[in-house]
Structures are given as C-alpha cells and as structure tokens.
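At this stage, I needed to go through a protein sequence along with its fold in token form, as given directly below:
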Amino acid sequence: MPDFIYLARTLQGDDVTGKLTANTKRDVLDVLARQSLFALTIENAKKGHIELKFLRGRVPNAMIANTLQQLAELLENGVSILAAFQVLIRQTKHPRLKEVLTDIHDRVSEGDSIDSAFAAHPKVFNSLTISIIRAGAEGAFLEDSLKRVAKFLEEANEMKSRIIGAMIYPTILTVVGVTMVFVLLTVFVPNFSPMFELSEQNGKPLPMTTVSLIEGNKLILNYWRYALVVIGVLAFWTWSQITTPWGRKLVDRLKLKLPLIGDILLNSSVASLCRVLGTLLANGVPILKSLEISSQSTGNLILADAVTKAAENVSSGESLSRPLSESGIIPPQVMAMITVAEESNALETVLVNAADTIERQVSRKLDTLMRLIEPLMLLAMGAAVLYIIIGLLLPVFDMDFAM
C-alpha cells in the first residue's frame, strides 16, 4: 500500500502533519476523521518522486502496447478496473511503468476518470492514446479502444523498427569505410615517405595519385584540430537553426526532395497520418480533434501545415479532401481514395486501409533501396582503398623498372 503525507487541522485550530499507509486518499480521510482531524492536503509520498525521476528511462512503445492489450483482456474477462491495474502492477518489471500504473490506479480509486488518469502522464501516453481511451470510456467501448490503440502502437513500432534496422548496415559500412581511409592516410602513407623522397631525388616525378595522398596526409596531420573546431561550430550552428520552426520546415522540405529517399519519407509520413486519423475517427474522436492529433504525428511540418489548413476548412463546413489536394503533398492515389471515402461516409475505414497499402509500398521501396545502397557503398569503399593502394605502389613500380 502507498504512503500518504497529510496536513490536517485539529479542533483547536492547530496544524499537524504526518504520514499514513493506506490504499487510497479516501481511506486516509476516514482515518483522520476518526482522529477528529480535518484534512487540508493529502499527497502521495511517492508522487513527487515519480515526477522528478525522468524517470528512470523511457517506456518502450512495445511495452505500452502490451500493457494496454493486457488491460483490455482483463476487463473483457470481467475483472474490475482497479483489480486489473493491481495485476498489471504486480507483473510489470519496468520501474517507470510500474510507478505510472500505480499512480493511475490511485487516481481511479479516488474517483478520477480513467482517461484523465492516463492524461496525467503525457510523457508515457501520447495524445493519440489518451484521445482513443477517452472516446472509449465515454462511448462504453473501453476494451475495444484499448485493443485498437495497442494494435496501432504495435504497427507503428514495427514500421519504425524496420526503418532503423534497414539503416544499421549502411551506417556500419560508412563508419568502417571512413575509418579505413583515415588509418591508411595517417599510418601507411607516412611509412612510404622515404621511398617517395628517394624517387624524387632520382629525378622521377611522383604520380598525381601519390601526390594527392601525401597532401591529404599533411592536411590531416596539420589541420585536424582546426577541422574539429570548424565541424563543431558548424554542427552547433546547424543544430541551433534546425531546432527553430523555420529551420525544421526547411529541413522537412529538403527531406522530401531527396532523390530516392524523399519519396519513402513522404509516403511514411502520409501512412502515419492516414493510420492515426483513421484510428481516431473509428474510435469516435471528433474530426477536428482527430486532425489536430494526426497533424502532430506525421513527423513532417510541411504535411502537418497542410493538415492544419484542412482542419480550418472543415471547421468552416467545407470538405477535407479539397485543401489536402491543393497542398500538392499527398500522393494523387491517396487523395483519390480520401475523396471517394468522404463522399461515401467511410473515411475512417478507407484511411486505415490506405495506411496499410502505403506501408507495404514503403517497405518494398525501403528493401529495394537497401539492396541498392549496400553494393554501391561497398564499391565506394573498394574504390577508395584501391586509390590509396595504387598511389602507394606506383612509385615502387617506377623504381623497380628503373633498376
């Protein structure tokens, strides 16, 4: 049972403080009333601890989805909501999630609604999750809404994992390639310097390949400190710019124009928009609120602005499809589906189906891109190493022929 710290007033008007162990604040009030004390404040002894702990690490989306799924199954099988949270608290190993579930249990036991209890932890449960839970609680289909948001989180996490996983191998190749070139330039090239000097003394000019290696070695050895300072300043300036709204919009616009990758990033953002908007509408969330939440989930400010403008049109009684189409960002095939769905009053179903279709396309394009990038990067690494080896060995061959 949690501990509560209270401030109470006696019948004589004196203030007293203390700590009690009880299930809820209501139990603390009963204990204080029996002692002829009038409670002024009652706080969970761990509440401040919870808020300041940043909380011992972020809760993974997969764990949140699993917890919501288990909560839905417990409620479906007739377990009361407080008992369900007690089960989840006992079996949860993640310290941060255990604290959050305990706080939600306490809030619900004190009379708070379940959606407001979840909303007290915005760093764990995003606005999408809270809105769907609120709609489910108000519409008496809480179990179904919990399952839907759990499924959404699982699918979003799977898509994110695929993208991250696809980038691991190219990143490793890049790091290995840069490291190899750096080692060859700073370690092997200096060892060949005496031979280069001997070749020049014999009147044989060094090949341009070899000269470029020598100059590259001098540049690294003599100016690496300055290069680090310049890179650091540029990185700081770039970061300060991209953290501003103007900078973020510029970066998002440039990302969409990147060859090959831009189309994948755009489709991924559109798929996220369709899935979030469709899921919210299917759970009874009003369309304006759904558009507001879905615009924040796109991960791209250009697309978010287009959705925000569409929301303004919807609020004035116009259709959703027209301003989205005029933005020119959403692909034509998706706009065609949204237009037909809006006319047939089946927007939420079509949006979710469109998200599934777009995500499959993104997955195929991502796999194709990775299969293309990997050999290209290997060829680039091989070409760089071959260039250095040729630059080192050409003077040796010239000396052998001279002899």
